[in-house]
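Chain A, query sequence.
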Amino acid sequence: MPYKDLTENNLQLAAMAEECVAGSAIDPELYTRYGVKRGLRELNGDGVLTGLTNISDIRTKKLVNGQLIPCEGELYYRGIRIEDLVDGCIYDDRMGFEETCFLLLFGYLPNREKLSSFSNLLSDYRCLPDKFVRDVVMKAPPSDIMNGLTRSVLTLYSYDRYADDISIPNVLRQCLQLISVIPLLSVYSYQAFNHYHNKASLYIHMPDPALSTAGNILALLRPDCKFTALEARVLDISLILHAEHGGGNNSTFTTHVVTSSGTDTYSAISAALCSLKGPRHGGANIKVSAMFRDLRNKISDLDDEDEIKAYLNDILEKRAFDKSGLIYGMGHAVYSLSDPRAKILMSFAEKIASEKGRSDEYRLLNTIDRLATSLIAEKKKIYKGVSANVDFYSGFVYDMLGIPPELYTPLFASARIAGWSAHRLEELIGGGKIIRPAYKSLSEPKEYVPVSKRI
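Chain A, predicted structure.
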């Protein structure tokens, strides 16, 4: 039977959709009446405690004179400050994402011998089954690469003789393989998309075992496989910053929920990928880049702060950009005064902007950051403060690296697979219960009416 594409203009579907809305709508006041924590969050923005983790910690408040007050955001991987992790690899003049993966998975920093052995293992795993690119990646590439990436991960299940074995050694092996191949699948999926949808030339390079994860991403993406040391450094830092962010973020919590059912690794990671795809999560930096372009097109004088502020105000008033009322990249579900990842990436954005001759754009982004922060504080009822998050700068950084917007979220996944893997293992090792929160039903019992008597 041929596939039927029923368009949005289909009158029957439109009428059915109205009935669906009428039958599913819930009065917002009822959430307050029954004490429902919408989004699993308290009114002050704090998350509802649903689990314990040793993997990472986010600190946004400090105890002063017996009271918790907002502080500059702090992020720790296995107790190590994210700034120290970044500074360490810069001091040693080496890539740091592989070390970050080791730390998240095993809970401690490896010595040189263990780090070298681990990096070599990831390099050995950085390959795909024979003809996988031709048979899976290149077939019917979707317009959104995240869907293609998810399909590829699910298909890898069929190539694994022990796909359903959830013993820790086997799951660790699967996770290491996914950490290694998701960057490949991301770039190959983009190349297929770019070829079939944009009619561009097709490049499928083989990974280089001598290169880091960041180096391979750049080499696989570019026709000539060439990149500068600073480009690789900046991408590596971005991967480190995106590798993990606590157990409560949407995609990692999804990993815990799906893992708790006892399912296989490929299904759990595919579920996390589907969660990350959303514009409220992994797709946020795409919105930031689009907003930045729109501002540059609408503002006549990019040095006029009053004109920039007026544009930002129009966004908040739902008169500009996508009319959502959101200045993308500003604010975070957890951070208040600052996002440490944004501060780190901002410094590297400045360096690469100088190398690329785009310092004017960097200064404009800084101006938007400063003006938007104060404007949102003036106009919105914010309980915990607002600041730029990592997405505010990551899109600009990726653009300077020549990475197309279609790859922004897959690159996020290429980093976050490290955190997902650590959390999947943690759930299997210490979980023991399927995650099942409660939903209160508002429906009342009704009498069944035979179809012949229905109006």
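The radius of gyration is 23 Å. The first helix runs from residue 11 to 24.
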